[in-house]
Design a protein that fits this description.
Helix content: 10-25%
Strand content: 35-45%
Order of helices and strands: EHEEHEEHEEEE
Largest sheet: 5 strands, antiparallel
Structural class: alpha+beta
Distance between the termini: 42 Å
């Protein structure tokens, strides 16, 4: 069964800036697994393994959810860690503008496809994860609070399939969903 999630892709320039930010994560090659540049995205909803039949139904419902939302502006900036600075497990970049719209879109998508997420939605971009059984320090990473990656227009999201390999996940776009409405002025 395919592992499915819904996410926004990012402009190349923002990915470039996020890769530069990843260099600020205090890590050794064995403690933190950085998200590869091509896999950087903004997750809306992780669905897990679904049957092909369920996936087809989810795609129809996701299309309806997309049509109910207008395009909006997203600004990527700031940093943080989950669950705490003293014991980070995930290093992330934040969403400065557009977080409220992302939260509403994620909730609508969740309702539409019938998947209740395990944790409340928190708009962020995962940069790296501490490997199982390892420890890392948030160190100087949290000093990057003024970090700014850029602004983009959220006018679409994707359904992606995640295939786990020994080298890390490989994401394949299953379908693109265009949001309704006009592109906001900048």
């Amino acid at each position: 069964m395919p592992r499915i999630f819904f996410a926004l892709d990012l402009p190349e320039k923002i990915k470039d800036n996020l890769v530069q930010l990843q260099l600020k994560i205090p890590h050794t090659s064995s403690a933190v697994k950085l998200v590869e540049r091509g896999n950087l995205h903004l997750t809306l909803l992780f669905c897990g393994e679904v049957t092909d039949e369920a996936l087809q139904q989810m795609l129809l419902q996701a299309q309806a959810a997309a049509r109910a939302f207008s395009c909006f502006t997203v600004s990527i900036g700031g940093v943080g860690v989950f669950p705490s600075p003293s014991r980070p497990r995930v290093f992330w970049a934040g969403v400065r503008e557009g977080g409220e719209q992302l939260t509403r879109l994620a909730a609508a998508l969740s309702r539409a496809v019938g998947i209740v997420p395990g944790n409340p939605f928190s708009p962020h971009l995962t940069l790296g994860r501490v490997r199982q059984g390892k420890r890392a320090s948030s160190g100087s990473f949290l000093e990057q609070k003024d970090f700014f990656a850029g602004i983009f227009t959220a006018d679409r999201f994707f359904c992606l399939e995640s295939t786990l390999t020994k080298h890390g996940p490989v994401y394949t776009k299953v379908r693109e969903f265009m949001l309704a409405g006009q592109v906001p002025e900048k």
